[in-house]
């Protein structure tokens, strides 16, 4: 059982949780969306700079648990430089990774395999269903920001 | 003949015997491939309490032998079921020391009881500009119904603050009371801080201005003796599932003259005298407020739960829980980086805390792997979590079946959390 904890809280996750990357509010952001989990009080703002369909910059601020903070941090790392379509494909693929067994993963168009490799460390949440929302919170908000909404719709 | 009577304070509370009454407490959690995991350490009774065999058996027996709808039939079973259901009303009345069972309305939950008062009393007797006083430490169940009334009738909500220990600021309360105050709705025990409020004084100050007071007794009724006549409550609400009874049961106590002048909350069967399309007349309280078929079996279960509590003795339970609170507080405070939120003197057995550098959600997941069930989050009291500037917290709550060994398990699991995070 402690193995599962190690699986969930891998070193990379603990590191991103403690020292989140791109934890800032860029001056030139032109999209932002809020991601909120009212049950546990996690609350993030995701900032995007979208230009010509490309995510030129992505950053976040807010407060959350180690899982949601690490996931937000890693999201900013992999989404930066992607086209809108690529970012959405990553979101869908990552969502499958957190919620579904391997054989159930859908085809969401071409995804950055290297990025997915990196995100694999989050797959431990599948063993902790109540924590899936933590792992996907920032992603939902990022997706909402791309779609021009100001907050992630709660599922 | 030995006439010596043992000093009752020397009779020790036999918690192991109590635990044997609760089937779920002997289970393990996180079992893997047939291998037992960790013994369950259930420290989340403030969210909902486990049920003793006596409650489970009473409901099963009722379903197997006496079940029927109530208040409706001339047949044998209906009368038997009605008698048993109504007997629980009497038990609840005695439990709260209400003057009569007429004062007791069954609802689905504490939430529904507050909504009943907000809807019925609130809409009939409050109007624009009138004020309702609540405290900052209310559960959402005692905030949102008043906000709905605010949206509907234009009433205003005034909020009594607490100090850094979580003690209600009585002076501020007295200052908030004015000619505009039409109702006070305050918790009798906070589900986050454990603070027990001075109910009698709160009521006295309100009554000086002729203002009725509702107490949210969802937690208070579990951890001590409540005497609605002594505190002079106008309304008192509680919820059955925290009292070791089933879900789907709640209680509204009301002074009879108030209940009598209140319009119905919901319409339907059982609450009417006669129905015609020219006009319908309503029964007297409590029936007036009990439209439709109630949670009959569950109310029977609630009766068994109250019997169970009385059989252990409410003072004895409170003393046991207080000992656990003191013990756990002392142990947990010794862990570096742990901050306890809510340190009011005489508080109930509720222990909210944070661990420096670790989010409560992560605390909850990790201690759970050690079998320790705590609640994490804002505990349905968002304004309060803002007040203490801590956001979400972890909360351990102690009940009549918990032990010092379980408090130790909590503390060592929190130490494990710190080691895990290197915090
Ligand atoms: C202080 C307090 N009030 C009200 C409630 C609401 O109880 P219920 O959900 O059973 O209506 C709770 C429990 O969640 C509580 O702790």
Question: What does this protein look like?
Answer:
The complex is a heterodimer of chains A (155) and B (423). By secondary structure, chain A is α+β, with helices and mostly antiparallel strands. Chain A has a single domain (2-148), classed as Sufe protein. Chain: A (Alpha-Beta Complex). Chain A contains 6 helices and 3 strands. In chain A, strands 1-2-3 form a 3-stranded antiparallel sheet. In chain A, α4 runs antiparallel to α6. Chain A starts with a helix and ends in a 9-residue tail after the last helix. Chain B has 423 residues and is α/β, with parallel strands linked by helices. Chain B has 2 domains: 8-50 and 313-421, Aspartate Aminotransferase, domain 1 (Alpha-Beta Complex), CATH 3.90.1150; 55-311, Aspartate Aminotransferase, domain 2 (3-Layer(aba) Sandwich), CATH 3.40.640. Chain B has a 7-stranded mixed sheet, with helices on both faces. In chain B, β1 (28-29) and β2 form a beta hairpin. In chain B, α3 (76-96) packs across α11, α12 packs parallel to α15 and α13 (360-369) crosses α15 (404-421). Chain A binds chain B through residues 1-2, 4-5, 8-9, 14, 38-42, 63-69, 128, 130-131, 134, and chain B through 30, 32, 37-38, 358-362, 365-366, 369, 376-378, 382, 385, 391-392, 420-422. The structure holds pyridoxal-5'-phosphate. Pyridoxal-5'-phosphate (PLP) binds next to α4 of chain B. Pyridoxal-5'-phosphate binds next to α4 of chain B.
Compounds present? pyridoxal-5'-phosphate
Distance from first to last alpha carbon of chain B = 64 Å
C-alpha-based Rg of chain A, rounded: 14 Å
What is the 3D shape of chain A?
A: globular
Number of helices of chain B: 15
Number of domains of chain B: 2
Give the proportion of residues in helices of chain B: 25-40%
Name of the level-1 CATH class of chain A: Alpha Beta
Largest sheet of chain B: 7 strands, mixed
Q: Kindly report the spatial arrangement of strands forming the biggest sheet of chain A.
A: 1-2-3
Elements of chain A, N to C (H/E): HHEEEHHHH
Name of the top-level CATH class of the largest domain in chain B: Alpha Beta
Secondary-structure content class of chain A: alpha+beta
- Which CATH architecture of chain A would you pick? Alpha-Beta Complex
- CATH names the topology of chain A as Sufe protein. Chain: A
Give the strand tally of chain A. Answer: 3
**How many DSSP-defined strands of chain B?**
17
Number of helices of chain A: 6
Q: Could you say which structural class the secondary elements and strand pairing of chain B correspond to?
A: alpha/beta
């Amino acid at each position: 059982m402690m193995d599962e904890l190690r699986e969930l809280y891998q070193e990379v996750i603990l590191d991103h949780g403690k020292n989140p990357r791109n934890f800032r509010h860029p001056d030139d952001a032109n999209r932002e969306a809020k991601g909120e989990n009212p049950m546990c009080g996690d609350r993030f703002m995701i900032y995007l700079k979208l230009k010509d369909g490309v995510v030129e910059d992505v950053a976040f601020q807010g407060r959350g648990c180690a899982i949601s903070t690490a996931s937000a941090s890693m999201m900013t790392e992999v989404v930066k430089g992607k086209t809108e379509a690529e970012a959405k494909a990553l979101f869908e693929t990552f969502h499958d990774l957190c919620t579904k067994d391997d054989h159930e993963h859908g085809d969401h168009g071409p995804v950055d395999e290297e990025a997915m490799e990196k995100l694999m460390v989050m797959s431990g949440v599948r063993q902790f269903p109540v924590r899936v929302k933590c792992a996907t919170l920032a992603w939902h908000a990022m997706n909402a920001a791309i779609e021009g909404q100001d907050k992630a719709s709660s599922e | 003949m030995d006439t010596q009577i043992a000093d009752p304070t020397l009779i020790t509370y036999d918690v192991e015997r109590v635990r044997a009454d609760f089937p779920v407490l002997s289970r393990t959690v996180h079992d893997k491939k047939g291998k037992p995991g960790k013994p369950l350490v259930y420290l989340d009774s403030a969210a909902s309490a486990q049920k003793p065999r006596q409650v489970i058996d009473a409901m099963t027996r009722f379903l197997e032998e006496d079940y029927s709808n109530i208040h409706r039939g001339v047949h044998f079973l209906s009368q038997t079921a009605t008698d048993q259901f109504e007997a629980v009303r009497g038990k609840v009345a005695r439990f709260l020391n209400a003057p009569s069972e007429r004062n007791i309305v069954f609802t689905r939950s504490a939430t529904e009881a507050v909504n009943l008062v907000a809807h019925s009393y609130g809409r009939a007797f409050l109007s624009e500009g009138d004020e309702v006083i609540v405290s900052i430490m209310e559960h959402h169940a005692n905030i949102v119904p008043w906000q709905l009334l605010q949206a509907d009738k234009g009433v205003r909500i005034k909020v009594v603050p607490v100090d850094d220990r979580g003690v209600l600021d009585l002076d501020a309360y007295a200052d908030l009371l004015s000619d505009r105050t039409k109702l006070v709705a305050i918790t009798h025990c906070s589900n986050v801080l454990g603070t027990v409020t001075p109910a009698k004084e709160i009521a006295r100050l309100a009554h000086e201005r002729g203002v009725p007071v509702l107490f949210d007794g969802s937690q208070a009724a579990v951890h001590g003796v409540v005497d609605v006549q002594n505190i002079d409550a106008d309304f008192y609400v509680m919820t059955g599932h925290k009292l070791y009874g089933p879900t789907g049961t709640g209680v509204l106590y009301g002074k009879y003259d108030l209940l009598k002048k209140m319009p119905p909350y919901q319409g339907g069967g059982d609450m009417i005298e006669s129905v015609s399309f020219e006009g319908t007349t309503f029964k007297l309280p409590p029936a007036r407020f009990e439209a439709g078929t109630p949670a009959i079996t569950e109310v029977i279960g609630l009766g068994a739960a109250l019997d169970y509590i009385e059989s252990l003795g409410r003072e004895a339970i409170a003393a046991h829980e207080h000992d656990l609170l003191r013990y756990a507080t002392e142990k947990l405070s010794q862990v570096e980086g742990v901050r306890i939120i809510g340190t009011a003197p005489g508080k109930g057995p509720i222990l909210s805390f944070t661990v420096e550098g670790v989010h409560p959600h992560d605390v909850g997941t990790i201690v759970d792997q050690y079998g320790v069930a705590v609640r994490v989050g804002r505990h349905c009291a968002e304004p309060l979590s803002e007040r203490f500037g801590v956001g979400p917290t972890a909360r351990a709550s102690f009940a009549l079946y918990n032990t010092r060994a379980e408090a130790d398990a909590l503390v060592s699991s929190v130490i494990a959390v710190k080691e895990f995070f290197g915090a």
